[in-house]
Design goal:
about 30% strand, six-stranded parallel β-sheet, alpha/beta, two-stranded antiparallel ribbon, NYN domain-containing protein, Rossmann fold
Length: about 210
């Protein structure tokens, strides 16, 4: 069965990768490991946004290095939303009289909409027999439900969260979970060369 993976990059990072030594993750290996043998992976769409480096100046470089590694995978495409960083004032809880504090606010925009759009678009173009969505974001329930109901194509969830959120689990054709062993055994080599001869090296601390 032709299978395309749709990866919610930020959800995967914050639910399964942050604080672990497994950020150097080969998505092709991971999806192939989790899916059944009859699933022939014909493409991966990775949805993310470029971080600002406002708190960690080296973060954009590490992210770019990882995207370079992902782009060596056959059939993988990267789709960018936007990452908004701004300062704002919020009332301090319990303060009397009312006091306000300045906080840094960070918000990733567009990735869930982009993922939903490609999931439906690829489905009606008959680019896959099965779709798998790597996320635990319940905002994606409706597009998944539409593809299953109206396009008659199964959509599975590969959940970075254990358990998978109830709403997603109820609508999905099947549910798999990302476990520590999947992350540990599906890492890129620490250093390798891409097709253009450029050396790609795992960021320090990853």
């Amino acid at each position: 069965m032709r299978t395309i993976g749709y990866v919610d990059g930020f959800n995967l990072y914050y639910r399964a990768l942050k604080g672990t030594p497994y950020k150097w993750l080969d998505l092709n290996k991971m999806l192939s490991r989790i899916l059944k043998k009859e699933n022939r992976l014909v493409g991966i769409r990775y949805f993310t946004a470029m971080v600002t480096g406002r708190i960690d100046p080296d973060q954009p470089r590490r992210q770019r290095t990882y995207l370079n590694a992902l782009e060596t995978l056959p059939g993988l495409t990267v789709h960018l939303g936007t990452f908004l960083a701004k300062s704002t004032k919020r009332p301090l809880s319990g303060s009397n009289p009312r006091q306000f504090v300045s906080i840094d606010s960070f918000e990733e925009k567009g990735s869930d909409v982009n993922l939903a759009s490609y999931l439906v678009h690829d489905g009606w173009r008959d680019m896959y027999d099965v779709a798998v969505v790597v996320t635990s974001d319940t905002d994606l329930i409706t597009p998944i439900e539409l593809v299953i109901r109206d396009l008659k194509k199964p959509v599975g969830i590969i959940s970075p969260s254990i358990p998978c959120p109830k709403g997603l689990a109820q609508v999905a054709s099947f549910v798999r979970h990302i476990r520590k062993a999947d992350l540990k055994n599906c890492q890129f080599p620490a250093s390798f060369t891409n097709a253009q001869g450029k050396r790609i090296t795992q960021p320090r601390g990853w």
